[in-house]
Design goal:
The protein has about 350 residues and is α/β, with parallel strands linked by helices. It has three domains: about 90 residues, Helix Hairpins (Orthogonal Bundle); about 120 residues, Rossmann fold (3-Layer(aba) Sandwich), CATH 3.40.50; about 90 residues, 2-Layer Sandwich (Alpha-Beta Plaits). It has 13 helices and ten strands. The strands form two sheets. It has a six-stranded parallel β-sheet, with helices on both faces. A four-stranded antiparallel β-sheet has the order 7-10-8-9. Strand 4, helix 8 and strand 5 form a beta-alpha-beta unit. Helix 8 runs parallel beside helix 9 and helix 10 packs across helix 11. The radius of gyration is 32 Å and the shape is elongated. The model has no long low-confidence stretch (mean pLDDT about 85).
């Protein structure tokens, strides 16, 4: 990376020198015609330009013998400098490093506008899968990783990414921590994830944080550090394999509802906003089923209680989260009712 940056800076320096040389040549050429031929500033400048860039227009005025000699010298040196400057410009424009820099600048501009997004710390096997799901669901996110090859890959794909260690506060801030909706700590080690959670929680006490743990023993430590949820991939993988062996139909259904590439049926959560017409109504009187078609399978009340398979008389309140099953359109209609 350092060598590539050095080459890019060298090319940029050459381009600046070339631009300065052309500018000086124009100034010297203009002053020379004014001194030798006694022309005005505009005529001398125009003559210099058409001479340096070999346009081939007729001279502004007839040249004296000293002026002809001066023009010949200007052509020899001027054309050479102009061609060299043009070559440097083309090389700079088509350079892969320049294209990468432009993509990075565009990415930085886009990241500065990110709001209500998720930060994914680490693009290993877990982080990559999280990104895939977020991308499919249209959830905005930004990735931070220490591997240059990974960040280059994501940059080429147009994914918001920052090259840096997410244990550093500066990297988290560059990923838009102040305006983020949540953070997924999916680094390769428990120590890194613990430090990431500690740093993020210190800067954003209200941030929703999900952390990866390599073993159940680490779960408690990550919760103490500030994680809202801790996921142990090996434990979950074992539970899923057991369920697939014992309850394959249920697993197939949940795969379609939660992870299907072509989602005809989805399971999602919808929060009842303040001022919603649903707030204060009983589930049976809310008209959710009739107006949206979605089925309410559970309700997480604002006090933290999870009401599975709620009875029709269950009261809905602002801040409650409805866990609903339906098509994408039905869930959108439900969100409109709850908004």
């Amino acid at each position: 990376m350092a060598r590539r940056e050095t080459l890019h800076l060298s090319l940029l320096w050459e381009l600046r020198v070339a631009a300065l040389a052309v500018a000086m040549l124009v100034v010297v050429g203009t002053l020379g015609y004014m001194a030798i031929e006694g022309w005005g500033l505009l005529d001398a400048f125009y003559m210099t330009i058409i001479t340096i860039f070999t346009v081939g227009y007729k001279e502004v005025h007839d040249l004296s013998p000293p002026g002809q000699i001066y023009t010949a010298l200007l052509i020899v040196f001027g054309v050479g400098i102009a061609l060299w400057a043009g070559a440097r410009l083309v090389q700079f424009v088509v350079s892969p490093d320049t294209q990468r820099l432009l993509r990075r600048q565009r990415m930085n501009a886009a990241m500065s506008k990110l709001r209500d997004h998720f930060i994914i710390c680490g693009y290993g096997r877990i982080g990559r899968e999280v990104c895939r799901v977020f991308r499919r669901r249209g959830v905005p996110f930004a990735v931070g990783d220490v591997d240059e090859a990974v960040t280059s890959e994501l940059l080429e794909a147009g994914c918001p990414v920052v090259h840096g260690n997410c244990t550093d506060d500066a990297t988290l801030l560059a990923l838009g921590l102040i305006h983020a909706r949540g953070l997924v700590a999916a680094a390769g080690t428990d120590a890194d994830n613990t430090f990431i959670v500690l740093s993020a929680r210190a800067m954003r006490p209200d941030l929703y944080i999900v952390a990866r743990a390599t073993s159940p023993e680490v779960e408690g430590k990550l919760r103490v550090a500030g994680a809202n949820r801790v996921v142990t991939p090996y434990q979950i993988g074992g539970q899923r394999m057991a369920a697939a062996a014992v309850q394959p139909t249920i697993v197939d259904f949940l795969d379609v509802a939660m992870h299907g590439a072509e989602v005809s049926l989805a399971l999602d959560e919808v929060r009842i906003r303040d001022g919603s017409a649903l707030a204060g109504m009983a589930l049976v009187d809310s008209g959710i089923r009739q107006q949206s078609g979605a089925v309410i399978v559970a309700i997480k009340h604002v006090d933290g209680r999870l009401n599975s398979n709620p009875v029709p008389e269950t009261l809905l309140g602002a801040g409650d989260i409805l866990i609903a099953l339906g098509t994408v359109q039905q869930l959108k209609d439900l969100a409109a009712l709850a908004g």
